[in-house]
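Protein modeling request. Please complete all fields; requests missing the sequence field cannot be processed.
Requester role: graduate student
Desired output: 3D structure, token encoding
Chains: 1
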Amino acid sequence: MQADKAKFAAHFESNTNPQLMDKQVISCLIIGSGPAGYTAAIYASRAGLNPVLYTGPEPGGQLMITNDVENFPGYPDGIMGPQMMEDLRKQSERFGADIRSGMVTSVDFSSSPLKVTVDEEKTFEAATIIISTGASAKWLGIESESRLNGKGVSACAVCDGFFFRGQDVIIVGAGDTACEEATYLSKLCRKVTMLVRRGEMRASTIMQNRVLSTANIEVLWNTETLEILGEDGVEGARVKNIKTGEEQTIVATGFFVAIGHQPNTRIFNGVIDMDENGYILTDKVSTRTNVAGVFACGDAQDHIYRQAITAAGTGCMAALDAERYLASIEH
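Delivered output (331 residues):
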């Protein structure tokens, strides 16, 4: 560790001249945008770290396909997801964050300074790295699902369930998350129809019991979705019983997909410690990873809450952790 500190101290210069940024060690490089990345950029900028943020393939993350956000503090009338991301980006740029288009395609964290390659072409060195690459919802992969995404199709019941109060909705999934979201929706909606592809659930016994004992949740076993119905909004779904081949139409105004999420962490395989599902492991209540100077925030390391506000909170934590790490190296 002392050798790394000495090597870094000799190599590091503060990024006071943006035109020379590419030739210097970047003090704080943020990989990925969205609530976590942009919040990290805001805090890192205000701390004088002159952060560089690469937005990744989906600037703004999952909120770019979210119409109404009503559960983020500070927006009493709600806000469109893309507008919220634009506001966060502008706020980070106001304090001097260098926001760049591009995707980090490989990393080398074997020594200090840390190295990243962008778009398989350009390599940068950084004193600290904040990973905020997020996670992507898994989808069924049918055309109507994509067409009606944000128009009644959602991958987050906690985010969007409020819009379907007193209405009939459908949820697809068989794990703990699907059961949890079905139970959540049952408190808001008139009826919840749960579609399970097999004759049993993967969920824990306690979660299954909650679903099966809730009066307004109906479980359709061995059932797959053929098509989500509607033009400008969800009107129902056409489904089929896999065993009998029988088809039926379910009338509903909301369609929730709860078949899991995939963290966008593949490029860190073998470099950063992760759990069996690819979520980055962080140290206790911090954002520190197993690599010194590398921090992770947002949905790339959070498989429990997956909310914009919690992602923003961990983005703040990551920037503060990076600032403290740099201070420990310089002294």
